[in-house]
Amino acid sequence: MAVWVATATLVAVAGGLVAWRAVGSNTVPQEFRADIVSAAASCPGLDARLLAAQLERESGWNPNAVSARGAQGLAQFLPATWRAYGVDADGDGATNVFDAKDAIASAARFDCVLRAEVAGLPGDPARLMLAAYNAGSSSVRRYRGVPPFSETQAYVDAIMARSLVLTIGPLS
């Protein structure tokens, strides 16, 4: 059962799921815009609005978010995934899951890896990538598309729909 809340609010529900609903502004918060555009440009085929909608869905724009399952930061990386894909985007010599610049660049990097892992499967590459982010690329490959998991299907549908109305806004 989904519980919908304001964009900037996260709610832990049964099983550690995080519920979300976009309410209010259809514009990416100014402090994340340039990093999202830059990070999306680093991955061929990754749309900045899709990346933004994914980040909004994951954390409600809260760089300090922590889920009941232990996912952390703006992109809600699990610790093992962060160790594998975290990048030092701000050049401070450390990868920090709670640093928005690092998290945004890392999310784009991970999305790019997932796109490659599910390439060649039937269906929309963006939908397949999002399904892989949520359920794992092995599940997407096993089902040859978005897996029949209600959580994953809702995740993909919500982000795809949100990306159609979300705007980046001015970069300066």
Summarize this, please?
With about 170 residues, the chain is mainly alpha-helical. The chain contains seven helices and two strands. The chain has one domain (about 10-165): Lysozyme.
Keywords:
172 residues, mainly alpha, Lysozyme, 7 helices, 2% strand, globular, disordered N terminus
Question: What would your notes on this structure say?
Answer:
The protein is mainly α and 172 residues long. It has helices spanning 30-41, 48-59, 79-85, 100-118, 125-135, 137-143, 150-165, and strands spanning 11-12, 18-19. It has one domain: Lysozyme, CATH 1.10.530. It is built from 7 helices and 2 strands. A two-stranded antiparallel sheet has the order 1-2. Helix 2 (48-59) packs across helix 7 (150-165).
Using the alpha-carbon principal axes, give the shape: globular
Task: Give the fraction of residues assigned to helices.
Answer: 40-55%
List the secondary-structure elements in sequence, H or E: EEHHHHHHH
Q: What is the tally of beta strands? A: 2
Radius of gyration of CA atoms, rounded to a whole number: 15 Å
In the CATH scheme, what's the topology name? Lysozyme
* Percent range for β-strand residues: under 5%
Largest beta sheet, briefly?
Answer: 2 strands, antiparallel
Number of domains: 1
